[in-house]
Amino acid sequence: MTDGLSIAEQVRAFHAGEEKGFNFFFREHYKGLTLFAYRITHHREAAEEIAEDALMKLWEKRAGFNHPLAIKSFLYTAARFASLNYIRNLRRETLRARQLAYLTDERDEYILQDIISSEIYAEVFEAIKTLPPRCRLIFEMIYLQERSYQEIAVELNLSVSTVRNQKARALMLLRKQVDPSILGLFWIFIGLF
What we know:
By secondary structure, the chain is mainly α. The chain has two domains: 7-94, RNA polymerase sigma factor, region 2, helix turn helix motif (Rna Polymerase Sigma Factor, Chain: A), CATH 1.10.1740; 130-189, Winged helix-like DNA-binding domain superfamily/Winged helix DNA-binding domain (Arc Repressor Mutant, subunit A, Orthogonal Bundle), CATH 1.10.10. It is built from eight helices and no strands. It has helices spanning 7-15, 19-41, 44-60, 68-129, 133-143, 149-156, 160-177, 180-189. Helix 4 crosses helix 8. The chain is rod-shaped and about 115 Å long.
C-alpha cells in the first residue's frame, strides 16, 4: 500500500485520470525507466527524457490500462523503442554531419580549383591571342588539339622542322608575356606534365 491506497486503488485512480494515480506510477517507474534507457543510449539527459516521454504516453493512453503489469510492460516497451530510435537518429545525424563536412570540403576545394584554373586559362589564352597568326595556329594545333608535328606539317603544307620552329617561337613569346609560374600551371592543367 502507498499513500494509504492499495495498488488496485492506485490503478483505479490512474485510470480515472487522478493526479495521485499518475504520481504513484511516476515514482514507481521513473528511476528504473531512466536506468533502462541509459543502458541503451549511454546518454543521461536522453535517458531521462525518454523515461518522461514514456510516462506521458502512458498518461495519454491511461484509459486502456487496468493492471500494473500492463502499465509496466507498456512503459518499458515504449522506453526501449524510444531509446533505439534515439540511437538510430544519432547515427544518422553523425553520418549526415560527416557527409556534409566531406562534401563541403570537397566542393570548396573544387570551386577553388575552378577559380584558379579559370584565371590561369584566361591569362594564357589572352597571351596566345597576341601571337603571330601562323605561330598561334601551330601552337593551338599542338597543345589544344593535340595534333602531331607530322599531321600539322601535312595539313599546312609545311616541313616538320618549320612546325617545330613555330612552336619554339610561340613558347618563347609566351614566356615573355606570361609569368613562368602561371605558364607552368597552365601546362599542368592541360595535362602536359
